[in-house]
Amino acid sequence: MDNKIKNLKILAWPKIGLNPYNEILYEKLEEHGVTVISHRDARLSGITSHVDVFHFHWLNAYLSHSAVKSLFSTLAFIAYILLLKIKKTKIVWTAHNTVSFTHSKKNILLEKLLVPFLIKYVDKIIVHSKFQINHFSEQYHSKIIHIPHHNYCPTLHQKIHGKNDYYLFFGSVSPYKGLDLAIQAYNMASSSCCVRPFKIVGSVNDSAYKMEISNLIQNNKTIFLEDRFISNSELELLVKGSKAVILPFRQITNSGSLIYALSCRTPVFVRWSKLVDEVISAHNGIEKVLFTFKDEKELVSLITKDVEVDLSDFDAFIANTDISRLVRDYYDVFFAAH
Q1: Is domain 3-150+323-337 classified as CATH 3.40.50.2000?
Q2: 21, 110, 163, 218 — which has fewest CB within 10 A?
Q3: pTM surpassing 0.85?
């Protein structure tokens, strides 16, 4: 391995989180000799003067609180970025969501302050979908690098025996994910024929939306809502055990849920989007396990259909999104910034 790579030090925010995405990425970098330091451990200490690159991801930590707390968090982050620039530390941002950078209706004005600042001052921006590049002003396109979202296979080790007979929606529940649309389609399907149960497992953080969901499911005894956190080990079994995962997202530029389900070799019913079209185009055979719909009627048809898939149709996707295959692209970004 190149000595420059071995000497590279990255300050990561976050290095490890509830989502194993970061853990997979940074562990692979460390396997190849890169030093990855957790921002949570470093904070504003002197260690920041000894790192080459600051790599950060989501903006929720700054924009998803009360107005006052978000204001102070945002201003502190801006000051931190400026401090790193003074120290000549290079800054790389993986912009996971580029339509709404937090998928939150809170603090929109602060988002409009923070995002243009970051776009201007960071050295490189990583996106996981090619079409996201057009969400940025053309003058910044030279900063933007496309690296496909890696799969979650390194963290998936549990085996199941047989398939449980249910559909699944998982993860945090927010209006942009369109769960209400999926429930309406499921209610229509179950009113005309016998269908598999529909499990909804994940935290509902919006109280008004939770009430809307509760009203939609109250008369259907085959929809089960579990409003709670899911551990990674439980999530793996839930996804692998389902007949199909339903992802009715209204707005999507990147989806860890989609990548996770495909990593588990589980079929997905997903609303058509540019992201889905890009995934289908990039991976041979994945169109046989990734079933798209554009409206409720098409989702009803999928729910009432007996979908069978060949597990080998996931092979190309899993090979193409292996972190071992993509890690060199990250090296290139960090060195281009460095």
Answers
A1: yes
A2: 218
A3: yes
